[in-house]
């Protein structure tokens, strides 16, 4: 290549020599660069012209530059989309096609130069082709000095050293990672072994738990059986206790009976002694003296014991039967206030009905005993007969009267499908106690109670849900028991602010909630 450059430079600088020297230089340069020999210029002009025309025609028909332009535009559009390898392939493809076109053009150039003879086209080759060829070959020359080459060698050695160091460090890192991987595998194997041991322990624990659970269930069943037997024993003890209490009550009654009979015996003995005396006492007429009988009756002898027993029974009604009745009513009525009002009215009506029944029963007894006793003994005899024959009291009639009175009471309401017979147990016991209280001397009675009245601490105690500063009674829960004007047992009342005094007329229409009575009026 250096000889060709020198030859081209010499040919350019010596253009002023002769035409022959120029022709020789052109021929030598053309032969050296393009491989065009003198024989080409000596070829027949007709054959050369025909080959050139065919080559040019083929080049025109194939339109290689149009194809190159299309491929360039397609590459430009897809340059940023396709990969680097695809871009390089397309570039190489274009270079190859360009080289093919240049080869055809150089073929045409060769034919054209051969057609022109020895001297035709020399100036064109000198001014156009040779400078272009020199520029291309000069650009392809390596521009590297000795210093630059040494520096490149040093850089290459340094890069090799770094590559070796990196390779050594990489090998050490790989070895270290392999060691860590082996240790991790060992730890994983140990963890798997521990997991297997733990699973076995868990299975053992499950089996033990199942056994313990079975034992616990058996213990629970045994405890339930023991609990049932204990409940049965408690019930038997309660029955025995009730029987014992009944026996004690019968013993007290028998003791009272014995004391009464003893008193009668003493009186009879005294009468017998007086009858045997020589001076008999003057016989008094039944109607001549207002004095009572000299011997006390059974009612008088048992008055204190009956008093204490009835007071205790009245307290039991408040503490036991009232709560049981309240539970029964709450199954049908959700309003607690209405339930308490129903119980209070039932108790008051039972007491009133029992008092009325006692008066009627006493009138019948007096009428029956009047032919046999004087007026001074008739009252005591009637009371004594009632005390001895309390079982003759028609308590069922009183229960019916109480239920009828409650059915027409405007202060209470009750579901129409349910009857007041549900609380007949409380009514029965209250009637029995109230009837027996009328045989006492003096008899016991309830205090007057009205909603909205002024609260009296001497007669009542406040309920747990009352307002302690309220002065008026909202409604009553339990009546107070009086002996004359003295309070024997306090009642219970609910006091709240805003309570109003309720006044009821003597005659009212039937309640809109309950209409069980055919009577159009209601007396309170």
Describe this structure in words.
- Residues 275-298 have a biased composition (Low complexity).
- Among the domains are: 47-115; 303-495, no CATH class.
- It contains 14 helices and 6 strands.
- The protein has 524 residues and is mainly alpha-helical.
- Helix 5 packs antiparallel against helix 6 (84-116).
- The strands form 2 sheets. A 3-stranded antiparallel β-sheet has the order 1-4-5, with no helix packed on it. The protein has a 3-stranded mixed β-sheet with strand order 2-6-3.
Q: Key terms for this structure?
A:
524 residues, mainly alpha, 3-stranded antiparallel sheet, 3-stranded mixed sheet, 14 helices, disordered N terminus, disordered C terminus
Record the SSE blueprint.
Elements lengths: L1 H12 L5 H15 L4 H5 L2 H18 L1 H15 L5 H33 L5 H19 L5 H131 L21 H4 L1 H28 L5 H34 L5 H14 L6 H13 L16 H14 L7 E2 L13 E3 L10 E6 L2 E3 L2 E4 L1 E5 L29
Parallel strand pairs: 2-6
Antiparallel strand pairs: 1-4, 3-6, 4-5
Short description:
With 524 residues, the chain is mainly alpha-helical.
Query: In angstroms, what separates the terminal alpha carbons?
Result: 148 Å
Helix content: 55-70%
Structural category is mainly alpha
The profile of the biggest β sheet is: 3 strands, antiparallel
The count of strands amounts to 6
Shape: rod-shaped
| Contiguous helical run count | 14
Mean pLDDT: 76
Please report which band the strand proportion falls in: under 5%, 5-15%, 15-25%, 25-35%, 35-45% or over 45%: under 5%
Which strands sit side by side, in order, in the main sheet? 1-4-5
Rg over CA atoms, rounded to whole Å, is 70 Å
Low-confidence stretches: 1-27, 32-45, 138-144, 278-293, 503-524
Pattern of helices and strands: HHHHHHHHHHHHHHEEEEEE
């Amino acid at each position: 290549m250096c000889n060709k450059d020198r030859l081209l430079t010499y040919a350019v600088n010596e253009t002023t020599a002769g035409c022959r020297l120029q022709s020789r230089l052109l021929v030598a340069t053309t032969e050296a660069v393009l491989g065009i020999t003198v024989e080409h210029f000596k070829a027949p002009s007709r054959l050369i012209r025909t080959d050139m025309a065919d080559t040019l025609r083929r080049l025109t028909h194939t339109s290689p530059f149009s194809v190159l332009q299309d491929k360039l535009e397609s590459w430009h559009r897809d340059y940023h989309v396709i990969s680097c390898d695809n871009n390089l392939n397309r570039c190489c493809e274009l270079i190859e096609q360009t080289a093919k076109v240049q080869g055809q053009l150089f073929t045409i150039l060769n034919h054209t130069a051969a057609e022109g003879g020895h001297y035709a086209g020399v100036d064109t080759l000198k001014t156009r082709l040779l400078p272009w060829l020199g520029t291309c070959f000069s650009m392809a020359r390596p521009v590297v000095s000795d210093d630059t080459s040494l520096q490149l060698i040093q850089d290459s050695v340094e890069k090799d050293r770094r590559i070796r160091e990196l390779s050594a460090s990489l090998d050490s890192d790989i070895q270290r990672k392999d060691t860590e991987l082996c240790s991790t595998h060992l730890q994983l194997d140990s963890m798997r072994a521990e997991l297997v041991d733990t699973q076995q322990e868990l299975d053992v624990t499950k089996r033990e738990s199942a056994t313990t659970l079975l034992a616990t269930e058996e213990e629970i069943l045994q405890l339930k059986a023991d609990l049932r037997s204990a409940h049965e024993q408690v019930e038997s003890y309660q029955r025995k206790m009730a029987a014992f209490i009944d026996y004690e009550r019968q013993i007290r009654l028998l003791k009272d009976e014995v004391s009464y009979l003893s008193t009668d015996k003493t009186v009879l003995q005294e009468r017998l002694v007086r009858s045997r005396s020589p001076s008999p006492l003057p016989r008094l007429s039944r109607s001549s003296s207002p004095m009572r009988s000299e011997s006390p009756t059974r009612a008088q002898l048992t008055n204190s014991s009956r008093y204490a027993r009835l007071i205790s029974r009245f307290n039991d009604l408040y503490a036991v039967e009232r709560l049981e009745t309240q539970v029964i009513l709450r199954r049908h009525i959700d309003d607690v206030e209405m339930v308490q009002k129903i119980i209070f009215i039932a108790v008051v009506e039972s007491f009133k009905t029992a008092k009325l029944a006692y008066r009627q029963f006493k009138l019948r007894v007096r009428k029956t005993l009047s032919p046999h006793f004087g007026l001074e003994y008739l009252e005591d005899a009637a009371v004594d007969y009632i005390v001895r024959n309390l079982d003759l009291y028609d308590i069922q009639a009183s229960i019916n009267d109480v239920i009828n009175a409650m059915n027409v009471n405007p202060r209470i309401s009750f579901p129409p499908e349910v009857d007041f017979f549900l609380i007949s147990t409380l009514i029965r016991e209250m009637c029995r106690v109230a009837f027996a209280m009328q045989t006492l001397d003096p008899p016991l009675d309830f205090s007057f109670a009205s909603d909205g009245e002024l609260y009296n601490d001497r007669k009542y105690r406040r309920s747990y849900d009352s307002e302690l500063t309220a002065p008026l009674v909202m409604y009553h829960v339990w009546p107070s028991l009086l002996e004359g004007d003295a309070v024997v047992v306090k009642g219970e009342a609910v006091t709240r602010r805003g309570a109003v005094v309720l006044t009821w007329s003597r005659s009212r229409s039937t309640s809109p909630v309950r209409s069980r009575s055919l009577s159009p009026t209601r007396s309170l």
